[in-house]
């Protein structure tokens, strides 16, 4: 939205507010040493001011529909035409258009259209808007049954490191992308949400991107912008209505045989909260016969032996409030971001190794401009199996109802190197964990 931004002014407000209210900016002010980070890329718009679609991304809605989201700088219909052959669009759907304001910034038109029913494991070709000259995109729907491959990484940002992480994910043959929070690192500069949208479009327009939010999505400024998550909620509408949630900040969905739960580390989580009540009800509805696997994503890790982000309420208090729910439900894996490094724990419950607890994995190593969190607490806790401060991403291949393979791929310059890999077996196949 080059024509609408006022970067100088916004930057000045940001700086002032940052000095006055450092707490609002979470990770930005943490005092640990990071190796030299890379700056944000300059990602210009192709055709600023036009009605041509930009920042196209997709997300699943139920088991056979897809939400297509895109932005235009000038008015354009919220219509998607689509079909299973290139250039032949036998179906069409219409949705909604919205926009938001943030200080002096006004977003472009954000179009949100749900298409389907769609066949599983099938390539669809689609066009956003009504103009014949608009580009064609394509995506592949997730499979209806195992195997399914997830690419997973948080704390992406928009640097050259982010680009190499995204290239590696693109080369991996994944069905869906899961993001445990901290997307753009716009940090109040709203046109950076636009450049982030442009950076991720090549991937996010062809595989569903299912995200939850981190501290960098809060973007609340006392007095002048008192609502949290304005840009995040406007731009990354996730299927919360379909999972009985009243908030875009927490939701769940089934894909192949996996029940994925996205939680919000920066909204209420105590037992009287709407999120807690929703989670309890959601876990109660899981049918392990249909979805033998339960995978949970949060932003702030509940287990962490990095020096970064120790003792924060969003980690300590959320774990205290919700760990029992996940343990009793026999959740298989919990992924978190926030700490810019990789760490894998054994199966844990209440800080002890426990064969019936979830494996906890921190995968906040997407490549944002803050750099790596490279200092660890020593000695390494027994429950921490593998830890390393490098950028990279993870892949979870759920092979069948009992076996899944998790691999962490480290970025070594432009290469992706498989550096940590384990087999996970489903918990209820372990008689000792039967309830
Ligand atoms: C999905 O389609 C690919 C290629 O068409 C096929 O090889 C694969 O077995 C399918 N997967 C599932 C789970 O049906
Ligand atoms: C785990 O595997 C067993 C054996 O295949 C299966 O019966 C069960 O439904 C699977 N999932 C869970 C959580 O029980
Ligand atoms: C599930 O996958 C694992 C790993 O490939 C394999 O050893 C096992 O036999 C499979 N189970 C079934 C029921 O096919
Ligand atoms: Fe974070």
UniProtKB/TrEMBL annotation:
InterPro entries: Calcineurin-like_PHP, FN3_dom, Metallo-depent_PP-like, MPP_PAP, PAPs-like, PAPs_C, PAPs_N, Purple_acid_Pase-like_N. It catalyses: a phosphate monoester + H2O = an alcohol + phosphate. Keywords: Glycoprotein, Hydrolase, Signal, Zinc. Residues 52-155 form the Fibronectin type-III domain. The keyword Zinc applies. Coiled coil: none annotated. One of its GO terms (molecular function) is metal ion binding. It is an enzyme of class 3 (hydrolase). The keyword Metal-binding does not apply. Its EC number is 3.1.3.2. Its cofactor is Zn(2+); Fe cation. Belongs to the metallophosphoesterase superfamily. Purple acid phosphatase family. This is Purple acid phosphatase.
């Amino acid at each position: 939205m080059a024509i609408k931004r006022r970067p100088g002014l916004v930057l000045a407000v940001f700086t002032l507010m940052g000095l006055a209210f450092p707490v609002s900016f979470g990770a930005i002010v943490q005092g640990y040493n990071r190796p030299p980070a890379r700056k944000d890329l300059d990602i210009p718009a192709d055709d600023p001011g036009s009605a041509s679609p930009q920042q196209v991304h997709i997300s699943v809605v139920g088991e056979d529909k897809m939400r297509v989201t895109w932005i235009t700088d000038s008015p354009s219909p919220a219509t998607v035409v689509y079909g299973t052959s290139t250039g032949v669009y036998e179906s069409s759907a219409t949705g909604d258009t919205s926009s938001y304001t943030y200080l002096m910034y006004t977003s472009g038109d954000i179009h949100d259209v749900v298409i389907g029913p769609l066949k599983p494991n099938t390539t669809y070709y689609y066009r956003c808007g009504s103009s014949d000259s608009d580009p064609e995109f394509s995506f592949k729907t997730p499979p209806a049954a195992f195997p399914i491959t997830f690419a997973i990484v948080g704390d992406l940002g928009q640097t050259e490191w982010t680009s190499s992480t995204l290239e590696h994910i693109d080369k991996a043959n994944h069905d869906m992308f899961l993001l445990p929070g901290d997307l753009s690192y716009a940090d109040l500069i709203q046109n950076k949400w636009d450049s982030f949208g442009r950076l991720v479009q090549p991937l996010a327009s062809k595989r569903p991107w299912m995200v939850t939010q981190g501290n960098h999505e809060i973007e609340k400024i006392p007095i002048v912008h008192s609502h949290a998550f304005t840009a995040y909620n406007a731009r990354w509408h996730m299927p919360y209505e379909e999972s009985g949630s009243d908030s875009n900040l927490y939701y769940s969905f089934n894909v192949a045989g996996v029940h994925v739960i996205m939680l919000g580390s920066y909204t209420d989580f105590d037992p009287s909260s709407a999120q807690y009540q929703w989670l309890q009800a959601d876990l109660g509805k899981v049918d392990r016969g249909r979805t033998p696997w339960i995978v949970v994503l949060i932003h702030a890790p509940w287990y962490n032996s990095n020096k970064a982000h120790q003792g924060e309420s969003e980690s300590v208090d959320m774990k205290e409030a919700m760990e029992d729910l996940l343990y009793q439900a026999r959740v298989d894996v919990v992924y978190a971001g926030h700490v810019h490094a990789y760490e894998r724990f054994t199966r844990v419950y209440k800080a002890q190794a426990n064969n019936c607890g979830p494996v906890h994995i921190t995968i906040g190593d997407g490549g944002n401009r803050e750099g790596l969190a490279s200092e660890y607490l020593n000695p390494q806790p027994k429950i921490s199996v593998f830890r390393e401060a490098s950028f990279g991403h993870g892949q979870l291949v759920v092979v069948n109802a009992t076996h899944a393979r998790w691999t962490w791929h480290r970025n070594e310059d432009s290469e992706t190197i498989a550096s940590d890999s384990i087999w996970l077996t489903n918990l209820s196949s372990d008689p000792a964990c039967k309830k």
